[in-house]
Amino acid sequence: MKMAKNDNKLKLHPRNPHRARYNFALLADSCPELAPFIKQNQYGSETIDFANPNAVKALNRALLVHFYGVLFWDIPDGYLCPSIPGRADYIHYLADLLAQSNEGQIPRGRNIRALDVGTGANCVYPIIGSQEYGWQFVGSDVNSVAIEAANTVVQANSSLKKRIKLRTQTESSAIFSGIWGADERFDLTLCNPPFHSSESAMASENKRKWRGLKQGDSADKGTLNFGGHAPELWCDGGEAGFITRMIEESLSVKDQCFWFTSLVARKDNLATVYQALKQVQATQVKTVEMAQGQKISRFVAWSFLDTEQMDFWRHNFWRK
């Protein structure tokens, strides 16, 4: 089993448009809804209250319209409101992963197909990937409300309608089964798996984070500004259990995917992930580290294709 790991400094990907500090005045010009939430911090710089979910949602809308041309974006109350810069990093590093097998050139356009497992109501990964690289996306989720909300966003934006399709996963215990067509191929799968093993475990962790942020009475709320609920944030077995099941299921479609990938938030879970990949005899395994400020994250990529098979794939599917 071949494993590779890249070295990053604590900064976003070089192609990530969110590397600089937020220009709130410019963002408010693109999305006036953001303006009421902008305030000055103790240093005289413009900012927003990142503990306010409405402010975070308005910031996301501004980022999506300003950088990605998405004129309408919304999520139902209580659903996960993700950090756009971190989501963009995953997409850009996936593009680099494909480029490594394509003579250093990022494959772009509609011939590249990606499956976003657990796309959520926000649909952010498909939005960024389709707008930045022209890739085609399928987003799947077990939550029909999330799929309906994501589809509303897609249908409201002409630039997304032909590039993103949404599918409901009707089997709560399945990941690829029921979503992946019998003759369907994907160049990439991506996933931000549920982090916690239960709702109570999530509530306990959130209280700890609130105390760390010195939010006073808010420490008893058990929620964070980004929202979210099952199955966005917890599942049986937590992150390690979910990824292990995904790896096991990937065997059934091993010849229909160029790279399977998943975020691994907990570094301690890597040993379990590597062991599961050894069990299924993955041909290639890579761990790619990413960073945002002082936070380190990573994704693990695996493939059942060897170098010769990858060359055949790209010549036959990427260059049509």
UniProtKB/TrEMBL annotation:
Compartment annotation: Cytoplasm
Major subcellular site: cytoplasm
Cross-referenced SUPFAM superfamilies: S-adenosyl-L-methionine-dependent methyltransferases (SSF53335)
Catalysed reactions, semicolon-separated: adenosine(1618) in 23S rRNA + S-adenosyl-L-methionine = N(6)-methyladenosine(1618) in 23S rRNA + S-adenosyl-L-homocysteine + H(+)
Any one GO CC term of the record: cytoplasm
UniProt keywords, alphabetically: Cytoplasm, Methyltransferase, rRNA processing, S-adenosyl-L-methionine, Transferase
GO molecular function, one term: 23S rRNA (adenine(1618)-N(6))-methyltransferase activity
InterPro entries xref list: METTL16/RlmF, rRNA_lsu_MeTfrase_F, SAM-dependent_MTases_sf
Classification via Pfam families: Methyltransf_10
HAMAP family, sorted: 23SrRNA_methyltr_F (MF_01848)
Family per similarity comment: Belongs to the methyltransferase superfamily. METTL16/RlmF family.
Job description of the protein: Specifically methylates the adenine in position 1618 of 23S rRNA.
Annotated protein name in UniProt: Ribosomal RNA large subunit methyltransferase F
